[in-house]
Amino acid sequence: MTTEHPPQTSSSPHGPSTEDLRRRVAAAFPALRADLEALVRIPSVSAPAFDQDHVSASAVAVADLLRAAGMPDVQVLTATRPDGVVSRPAVVARRPAPEGAPTVLLYAHHDVQPPGKDEDWQSPPFEPTERDGRLYGRGAADDKAGVVAHLGALRVLADELAVGVTVFVEGEEEIGSPVFVDFLTAHRDLLAADVIVVADSTNWKVGVPALTTSLRGLVDCEVEVAVLDHAVHSGMYGGPVLDAPTLLARLIATLHDDAGEVAVAGLLRADEPAVDMPEEAFRADASVLEGVRLAGSGTLTGRMWTKPALSVIGIDATPVAQASNTIAPRARAKLSLRIPPGQEPAAAAAALRSHLEGHAPFGAHVTVTDGELGKAFRAPVDSAAMRTARQAFADAWGVEPVDIGVGGSIPFIADLLEVFPEAAILVTGVEDPDSRAHGPDESVHLAELQNVVLAETLLLARLGAPGALG
Fold this sequence. Notes:
By secondary structure, the protein is of the alpha+beta class. It is built from 13 helices and 18 strands. The two termini are 30 Å apart. Keywords: Hydrolase, Metal-binding, Protease.
């Protein structure tokens, strides 16, 4: 349900009006779109198997755009972990706050996911292409549109900015931000802020904005099932011993009950959300095939936002093309567990390990290797910064924003809170349910992106008003 919203006529008592800023954003948008297209053409995939020179080129391009937008202090920076791992290049641009004014940190990332197979795309992944009001290309939504949203607000407000602004554009979000904490620690003085805007989430739907108030956390692991010391002939020995892929399948089947609920003891459930979505909308957004029943119970938003979800995201077994008449001695799977706000990742990882080890089928040897841990996030919904953001989004779109959870994880938000515990964090986004981030035919809705730029412009203008943060 959405509510029509009469716009606030002025962004602040002494600043430009909402309609003036709307006109200025519209005038600036063609150039912003061109900048987005130029960024999309840079294949800045941060995964190790790809050429990292493109990530460096992307960082330089972002730095040049921020300098041209009037940011006086722009640097391309890295950090190094204690084990010697060096981060991908990030861009940090700073404009000091006027005396007594707050500083706002604007976050986005310039690295992207691998494109996958070219044949799965209707147009080349790194050649931006417009179709039906959407711009297609890898990174067009996630998250080079976030970079452009920040850039647009800076251009429109220019010397009228009444707050300090730091722009932080990370270069390794898509590989889990492995050096993020070290980067925050090394450059803490450059990044300190009163409000942090993370432009890396989604809106409710086209025409209805959202503020993300919760994110699930992440636990993953690999589980290996072993039954033999080596492969043996399936005709001579088959029967008394089951192959490892069969036993792995039986183990995986214990992770959910007959209704599809996660059946791992010790995992928490948070409260049901206040909003839900129609089943037909979910089925369309998730491309569920006709006849497939949905798993779990309760609201669909609760199943996606406030309950655990457990998926098999990879399996190692004998490939079909290399199959022979042998009993496979080992098989391995990678599991991805999303956990709701309130669940500690280490406790969830221990619960998952205990379940896997305690349900070994037919006495098979089960080995669990722990992987990534990411904390969940829950934001206060009535902070001064949140109220200001909610008004800005309502004025930009003309309808009230929806407070949403997101089933995915942004683990670095917990890191930001740990390093900057006094900062108010706002999670905004440029995506919508049709954006297909991480998949083929990723896209951004161009009219929605223009609204995002306006909303952020209004937010920055209003945060500069006296007493905006209480």
